[in-house]
User: What shape does this take?
Amino acid sequence: MTYLIEEKNDYLVVYLEGEVDLSCSPEARRVILDCLQKQRHLLVDLSRVSYIDSSGVASLVEGYQVSRSKNLNFALVGVSDNALNVLKLARLDQVFPIYTSIEALLQGGS
Amino acid sequence: MVVESESTKDESVIDVQDLVTYYGTRKILDQVNLKVRSGEIMVIMGGSGSGKSTLLRHMLALNQPAAGAIRLFGKDPSKLSAPQLHAIRQRMGVSFQNGALFNSLNVEENVAFPLREHTRLDENTIRIMARMKLEVVNLAGFEKLMPSQLSGGMVKRAALARAIVMDPSLLFFDEPSAGLDPVVSADLDELILRLRDAMKVTIVVVTHELDSAFRIADRILVLDKGKVLILGTVDEVKSSDNKRVQNLLNRKSEDVIVNPDEYLQRLTDDLAGL
Ligand SMILES: Nc1ncnc2c1ncn2[C@@H]1O[C@H](COP(=O)(O)OP(=O)(O)OP(=O)(O)O)[C@@H](O)[C@H]1O
Ligand SMILES: [Mg+2]
Assistant: This one.
């Protein structure tokens, strides 16, 4: 897994790339929590994630929970079919704000 | 963790070749051949004592074949180093027939147990993962209960949650619905199908329940006294004209044919003062 962080409007955008599995979800978690520590709204872009397991999803869950406790915005974009399946299995597709693209979110669409 | 895909031509996740195995001097499995394909649900059926759980133990590389071979993900487990075998085991989840939960741990701790054993994930991650799996098996809200406070169906579901907590690519389930009422058993079937579809898991299920086998199976293997009686799709098994297969489908028990001399011998063996 690799990642990249960019600023877009009020948001930090974390682009995760590759496989987010047991061996690297701790890094994904740290990156996400660090961004939130800076009191920034956060978007996690999963469009370049080829595989995410439940440890990766757990890191997203924790990030979302922390952002809510800090009154920060948090959303997922570019959720692939694989990732959506993992989310749906635990009904987390009903929990996360999910947008098709960053543009869709910034323009207030879905 | 992803184990590199191996340079084998065939796509079987499990390949059992001419497997022969004994307990002591008793032959338990006799020339069993079976390939389990990636993403399929393979159901193993057969009478009590026919060798289903034993076959499962071989597919988990817990038992050594007396003859024949097993390949898991294209590799012969007997030729792997301990770390390689460990890596392969991490890709497999199992819920044993008698695999009870740990009585001293609550439901969430039971489900989280493999993560605490095998990973160094953050405690928060572990707890979220365990609760996600409890959500999957519809046990949300029961995480603090002790195993003794669960119904039979809840125990099965908690064991399933534990078996999938590491996101296995290969899942074994021995008698998921034994002793459960039909509605609960149908729920479990539904769950097994959802898991396969969402996580692309390859699943091997041992069951006695015909209804359940027909609902979930892509293919069915029927063992009879350690031999493969039939291996085929649900339709192939249903339309088989093999008498023993039909007896199994109609739940008829076979008339046991006795050898009078041997039988008398069995009844009177070791008796004192005859
Ligand atoms: N550890 C063991 N030591 C000796 N014999 C064993 C052992 N485990 C199983 N057996 C014997 O091997 C045979 C096959 O057992 P196995 O557990 O594989 O059957 P099964 O098909 O799973 O039966 P069931 O439907 O009752 O679970 C049985 O006769 C059993 O007594
Ligand atoms: Mg058994």
Notes: Residues 138 and 252 of chain B are 35 Å apart (CA to CA). The two ends of chain B are 65 Å apart (CA to CA).
